Amino acid sequence: QVQLVESGGGLVQAGGSLTLSCAVSGISLSSTAVDWYRQAPGKQREFVAFITSSGNTDYAYFVKGRFTVSADKVKNTAYLRMNSLKPEDTGVYYCNTSDYWGQGTQVTVAS
User: Fold this and answer.
1) Residue whose C-alpha is closest to residue 22's, from 108, 106, 96
2) pLDDT digit string (tens) for 8-30?
3) 76 by DSSP, 3-state: which?
């Protein structure tokens, strides 16, 4: 059974930083990619970033240069480091692998 558990969300002032974690069980990050998505109130879920099993990464244009995705294969945990946060980054952040989703973690950026 594959499970993903996000953590690390919270309330932060604009310009601040947060690091989200996605603890994965049931599948090794050495064999699967992890995607990060977010969903703002009243909007559709949108892609934010991914990291492949070999460490390749890509980002949505609106976070490129501010967010960094990484993975610790020993801890089997993926991370999303978010810098220079903006109010429009507010939303529930989810991680995904192999069509499994976590429960999400709320990020709120105050202006």
Assistant:
1) 96
2) 999 999 999 999 999 999 999 99
3) coil
